[in-house]
Amino acid sequence: MTGDLLLDLLMTALGYWWVIIPATTIGIIIGAIPGFGPANTIIILLPFTLAVDIHIGMTFMVALYVASHLGGGIPAILLNIPGTGGAAATTLDGFPMAKKGQAQQALVLSFLSSTIGGILTTILALFTLPYLSRLAYYLHSVEMVVVMLFGITLIAVIAAKDTLKGLMAGFLGLLLGAIGTDHIYSAPRATFGFLELFDGVPVVPALIGLFAISEALVMIEDETMLSEAGMRRMLKAGWRETWEGVRMTFSRMWHVAWTSVLGLLIGAVPGAGASIASFVAYQQSRMFSKTPEAYGKGHPEGIIAPEAANNGVGSGSLIPLLVIGIPGGSTAAVMMVVLQYHGVTLGPRLFVENPEIPYGVFMTMMVSYFVMIFTILPLTRYMSRVTLVSTMYLAPIIVCFTLVGAFAPRSYIFDMGLALAFGVLGFIARKTGFHVVGILIGVILGPLLEEYLLRALRLSDGDVMVFFSSTVGNVLWVLLVLSLSAPYLLARFRNGKAA
Amino acid sequence: MTTGEKSERKTASVGGELIIPVGGLLFAVYYLYSIRSLPWEAQINGFFISIVLLILAALFLVRTFGRLARGEVDLGFGPVVGKIVLFRKRIGLIVLTILFVNVLPVIGFTATVFLFLVAGMLLLGVRSPIRLFTISFCLSLGGYLLFVVALNSTLPRGAVERLLGAIF
Question: Which residues of B touch A191 (CB under 8 A)?
Fold first, then answer.
């Protein structure tokens, strides 16, 4: 990799502005619609990406991919409905901030931390590609179990007010995530006789039900989603609020940096994904905050952490694809199809034979992030006006179009019914003090945890000590214990100093 | 404290809080029943989660009934049911959603969305016929253009989609 090559690729990426602008626009819209992920959209547009030149095709896919991560945060903040699994953690502080009439600031925090975090991790990925690619060789089933536990411990963190209810929500989610056939014998478990549940509970209908439909059932209590003070603030909002959001982000740049790097590291491991990265980043951000009690009430860092992390994943997930030919997620898998169709051989030789392709991907990401800052930031003022719409209109619109999102991944009418069932569950949970995020964490991370757990146990013939047999794994266990105990130790230390 | 003072003190209604623990308990029992004859690898994950969930549910029930015995709470469903007007609207919205899911494969996406939006907004209090029709028409058409035309999704197609497809 030389400076001249990078400069050439940067100029080339800038020259594709006519591809990047529509691709980022489509990506933001797709990311904002629950159920329509970037993988689905790239598959639908496959005839286009296969027909055009490889560079145009890759530019389009990469720009759409990074924009979709950003788009997922928009409904998460405005409507408490995450557009993607990676934005579920954004609802925890994004929506409370919107209800207080600070939707503009919340959106700016989300957009800037996504784009700045994305730019930082793209630059980092460019220079650390050979090293980050080796992560996949060091993180096996045992280590992945501990990574999953980092995310699952968030259940205990958000259950701070009523630990018993929080843990019940989390374990109910884990048990719902354990529905379906097992990984070894394909024996159905607790499927209620439905064939559609043999592959497990699909995440998208669960997410839509727990957040969107339950939110629609809750929001009809009031004329609008805003509190009285929030309504007064929103009616007076102007460009000043956008600048306030910019100042809030730039005063927390260290937070943006380290949470996006966390996302990069998690994304570099095949199969980890944005959901895990955003939950882990939120949990770590809260653990090490000086004001953890402010999380969940509209804390800016509660928005920065998941949004920076899930865009860091965007940079990270392409690393295993380009360097060792293993896609980091479903979107990377579709990109792999396009590259192979055009005769590109993935793996280490790619950097020798066609270095402009892998480095060009990261340059395109960087340019896409810059473009999005200028195209999307001015729109926050108008997007935030959604919070002023009466719930009489919003509730049926949300139910209707999010059910379409539930249908989209598998084209099963059953999934719409499943979303409704989760919606009723989510409504009851919200009205009785149980955490829907806890249930969702269990549904998402439970199957992944089981897969890695079983793989590790099979390899060790059932010996549980395998979980403490690797150096990297033991280091991760120590970090997990430290991250759980650090807040209490820090609090005791501060109390001791104050006394 | 006198009897009058006691009767004036409001107790929290926690009947609704029992729905998820009892449901979780029943689901855990069902899960254990469904895995009873499977190999250990298929059982281990669900077994441990079910046992923990059963313990947590039992603890919650003990805690709640203890508070009930002390007169701190009652078994009302107030927080879940809410005001009767709102309850009817919620049940109405759920019924409309069930109808949406069942009618969609029959008459297609666009027509179902239009009818659902009209019925839903009417249920929630929108009374202006112009607004009902305009908003529902624009959104169903927008949905058709986005999901059917642009994204070419596999949503059920009905007479409206066929007509629009023939025209354009």
Answer: 34
